[in-house]
Specification:
about 525 residues, alpha/beta, Rossmann fold, seven-stranded mixed sheet, about 35% helix
């Protein structure tokens, strides 16, 4: 089931390349019936560096093999459309889209005009029919969920979180959908905000290298507004079927690579114009039903349709702090330390509690302890835990047993925990940017590593630590090399910052008493 075989990711639709506008605009009833047979190639944006983790989760929970894209921060996998609900329950993915077609080695023309003309012509040749059925089915699932509020795949508090979301790094483009018509089309807003919201700064979902190109992406949405709006006259009329509602759409282009003779704006504008002409849809940058994605990475071109209204990483947090960690990244970090039933897992610098809350939700047979020295952070984390408890109650009141998680205010260098009593430490260490300072980190990091070494079980204890202050961390680690051994490093992108997640294993050596060390 690996979709990486040919250049077209949906080969099973030979007769459907020329989709009729009217036929696709009024899909509703057929889509639900065909859900059983319909298959979809799903693209997912994931935290950069954790592509393999996401692929393992997909294999484990959906039984599908994934292909990791050359464009960092994306994976592709094939599932029957009836599994869409389970796809939305994945913990490691930020945004989801259904692939219309994929071109592994797209041949761009020499001149900009020819290249853009080719992209326009491509619209008529793409196999839109089945992906649009998947999009429609996805919509109907979300509508059911909104009505019942039982399945709760995405947070009931999403509105609340949207208003807070800016703290996650500023230009988190989710705010564009705050007034979107979520009730009518809950499935379609935000996936390439997602490709970039991936790192909430909105600059690049790919490793920070192509920041310049990806910065363009932030502007695309505004620019296409201007150009597509000029073309909406065709979309204002009726579609091929009298009573069908005219769908509103936008095209978002993500481009990475320095060999292109066009900008993201130009590609989105011209491709969007052709989409509008082909389907007779109406361009609308904020209240759209369908978001068409044009992802270009060097010579790889993927056309998709968004399936998520906002990034799935916002699932647990209702009370944000200045540096709230995305739940998807927290999940990746936790998976890295391979939690076993009955493990005691500690986050000594928990901030708003993203890591322990994710841990308690996904590994309920472990005991999670969270703490922070900042009373405000502890309060926010406690509020987030309360929100999770309320959510669990609304899901199924009979089974709402609480969560195996406690939150404490403490001093990271002097933890009130017995020596050797903890199995796993997972934490997001201060980067020294928005919280603390690089200078303070030179004292804090070695002291933290010593104290973590003291509380961890010799021989089996492990720690997964995220930091952007890599130089300071390496120096601190060299000072405590007798108790911590570095087993793995995962390079990640956090809000546009190039950071690292370190997996450390506890040696058998006894940690010295902190007084003699300092």
């Amino acid at each position: 089931s690996d979709p990486g075989g040919g250049s077209a990711a949906l080969p099973r639709q030979p007769g459907m390349a020329e989709a009729e506008a009217g036929g696709d605009a009024g899909l509703a009833p057929a889509a639900a019936q065909e859900g059983a047979e319909l298959a979809a190639v799903i693209g997912a944006t994931v935290p950069t560096g954790f592509e393999q983790t996401a692929a393992e989760e997909v294999q484990e929970k959906l039984g599908s093999a994934s292909r990791i894209s050359r464009d960092r921060g994306k994976i592709y996998f094939e599932v029957p459309a009836r599994s869409l609900l389970q796809v939305h329950r994945l913990r490691s993915v930020d945004n989801l889209f259904v692939v219309v077609q994929e071109f592994k080695d797209y041949q761009f023309k020499e001149s900009k005009e020819d290249t853009l003309k080719d992209l326009e012509d491509l619209v008529k040749k793409l196999p839109w029919t089945n992906p649009l059925k998947v999009w429609e089915l996805n919509n109907s699932l979300k509508k059911k969920k909104t009505k019942r509020k039982k399945h709760n795949l995405q947070r009931p508090t999403s509105r609340e979180k949207l208003s807070d979301g800016g703290e996650e790094g500023g230009a988190d483009q989710n705010c564009t959908n705050e007034q979107g018509d979520c009730a009518q089309n809950p499935a379609n807003v935000e996936p390439t905000g997602g490709q970039d919201t991936e790192n909430p700064q909105g600059v690049t979902s790919r490793n920070g290298v192509e920041e310049e190109e990806d910065n363009e992406q932030s502007n695309v949405k505004v620019e296409v507004q201007a150009s597509s709006e000029g073309r909406t006259k065709a979309g204002d009329g009726q579609t091929g079927e009298g009573e069908a509602k005219v769908l509103r759409f936008r095209v978002t282009c993500n481009r990475a690579g320095d060999k292109h003779n066009f900008t993201s704006n130009e590609a989105a504008r011209d491709f969007g114009g052709a989409v509008q002409e082909h389907f007779q849809w109406k361009a609308d940058m904020t209240n759209f039903d369908v978001e068409v994605l044009l992802n270009i990475h060097n010579n790889e071109v993927v056309v998709g349709i968004a399936l998520t209204e906002e990034s799935l990483h916002r699932r647990n947090i209702t009370h944000f702090g200045p540096t709230t960690l995305r739940s998807t990244l927290a999940y990746g970090m936790l998976r890295l330390c391979d939690p076993q039933p009955t493990d005691i897992i500690v986050d000594p610098m928990c901030g708003t509690g993203a890591i322990p809350i994710e841990g308690a939700a996904e590994w309920p047979y472990c005991y999670h302890i969270a703490g922070d020295n900042n009373p405000q952070a502890v309060k926010r984390a406690a509020n987030n835990i309360c929100s999770l408890l309320r959510k669990n109650e609304s899901k199924d009141s009979s089974a709402a047993l609480g969560v195996p998680l406690d939150i404490i205010q403490w001093d990271i260098c002097n933890l009130p925990l017995r020596t050797g009593s903890v199995d796993v430490v997972v934490t997001d260490m201060p980067f020294g940017k928005r919280i603390g300072s690089k200078k303070k980190n030179w004292d804090l990091y070695p002291a933290c590593l010593m104290e973590m070494g003291r509380i961890c079980t010799p021989g089996t204890g492990r720690a997964v630590l995220l930091t952007q202050d890599k130089k300071c961390f390496a120096k601190a680690l060299s000072r405590v090399g007798h108790i911590w051994r570095r087993a793995q490093t995962v390079w990640v992108n956090v809000g546009g910052l190039h950071a690292a997640v370190y997996l450390l294993r506890r040696t058998w050596d006894t940690a010295e008493d902190r007084r003699s060390f300092w």
